[in-house]
Each structure stands twice: as structure tokens, then as C-alpha cells.
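Predict the 3D structure for this chain.
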Amino acid sequence: MFELMIEDSFAAAHRLLNYEGLCENQHGHNWKVQVYYQGTTLDKAGMLIDFKLLKNALNTVLNKLDHKDLNNLNTFIVQSPSSEAIAKYIYIEMKLIYKEITKVSVWETENSCATYWE
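Done. Predicted structure below.
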């Protein structure tokens, strides 16, 4: 089994719903996103998949979030845009492109991340 990981980031504002504390106020983060891809078969170049293809797919997904107020996006109108919910959203969007995606981690700070997988 082989596993690849790509990393990118996006900046956005959000506020947590149904939360009592500072994070109920609108604030922003520079989120780091890690996407994991697994498989068993390498192509004739000896690669599981070209990193460039994964990065392009992730870029397409992150462009929907970057420099946005996440609370105004349809996905997060009712659901709080927590790091956990953002990780799940990116996982689902990436899984539509590549079924071999196994998990997504979203880092809210350099010391705190949420990971989603099925």
C-alpha cells in the first residue's frame, strides 16, 4: 500500500454557531489542509498519481473557501464552520474527484487540527 499526502492552505473568516466564547465572534484563520491518497498500483513512471493532479483538484476545492466568510456559504449556513466540518467538506469534495482519498486534516493553528475520514 502506498500513501501520498499533499498540503495547501486557504484564508477565510468564520464564526462558530451555538458556541459560547470568543470564537462565536467573527474572526479569521489561515488554514493548512492536508489530503491523503492511497493505492496499491504504481503507473509505468513508478508513481501512484502525479502530485500535480492532486494539487490541482485541491486547488479547485479550496478556491470555493479562500478569502470567503464561510458562514455565508450554502454548506455552512446551518452547520457551524468548525475545523471538523471544514475537514469533512473538503474530504467529500475531494472524494468526488478521486475515490482514493482516505482522509483530510485541517489545521486551524500550527498546534490544532481536525481530521475527517470514513
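The first helix runs from residue 51 to 62.
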